[in-house]
# Entry
Amino acid sequence: MTYLSATNSAKIELHLHLEGGAPPAFIRGLAQEKQVDIGGIFDTHGNYKYTDFWDFLRVYEAATQVLQTPQDFHRLTLAVLEESAKSGVIYTEAFLSPDFCGGRDVGAWREYLHAIREAADIAEKIMGITLRGIVTPIRHFGPDKARETAICAAETAGDWIVGLGIGGDEKSGHLSDFAWSFDCAREAGLRLTAHAGEWGGPDSVRSAIQDLKVERIGHGVRAIEDLALVDEIAEKGVVLEVCPGSNVALGLYPSIRKHPINELYKRGVRITVSTDDPPFFHTTMQKEYAALHDAFDWDEAFFDQLAKASLDAAFCDADTKARLHKTLEQAHA
Ligand code: HPA
Ligand code: ZN
# Structure
């Protein structure tokens, strides 16, 4: 295999925060247009500036202050998908937050969603990338707001809003505090994922599986600290949305080589690869692939199989999956 062919291959991404994909220049431009003061969130090179995960969350929320209308999210969606498509991504699931889209009001949320979907339709036509949405309660905003968010999700559940997945500060409260929201989403037919096992240890992953009954975990990599749990995850077929570059950028692991993704894979866990918040972490799907190739010698055949397995773990409907599997086959022929 050549290094280039693997990094250029067709990719499936399952863990991307829409606002977290905003190029810093895009946020700066909107701030200027709207005369919004978002504080000193950029470094001298114009990149996002933060010191750790919790400071990252602060900067992230400051950046969202310029995203004020459905039209802003339309533009954001196009800007984010353009970057993903450049990396060879043909399907992505993005976390969308009713908190930032009309303050969890269902009527307002529908308007934001309409604008995001219009942008996604344009991107699909001109860039060949398909987007689906996972509604995201923000953990540190608390269980009450999460309930309102889950109601937004349930009201708009369908072939485009396909899941619910909690994000935010993993150290805030307990995952079981959010069981009502997850039950509500499940009853509306949504598929479930939760951030766990990044800043929380193995117990947080257990709680996501037992208390929220998720079928995928955002990150989940710290399951490696408990091999009985790794076996359980492998046996149950729970999928990990692994974001190696994010974990290294935030200091969870010192390098990709020291990251447990390959070990988890070898132990039979269903792994996928995503970027999380690419400009914040100076990454792209292409960079993730290149780094994994360098660290673990994953080759073209491995990446082709990874894309197929990731699509199998996607929350979209069967027809969309079948169409995209064909695209993958053609791209990898
Ligand atoms: N992790 C958790 N919550 C988030 C993130 C993230 O990377 N991005 C936005 N909210
Ligand atoms: Zn995330």
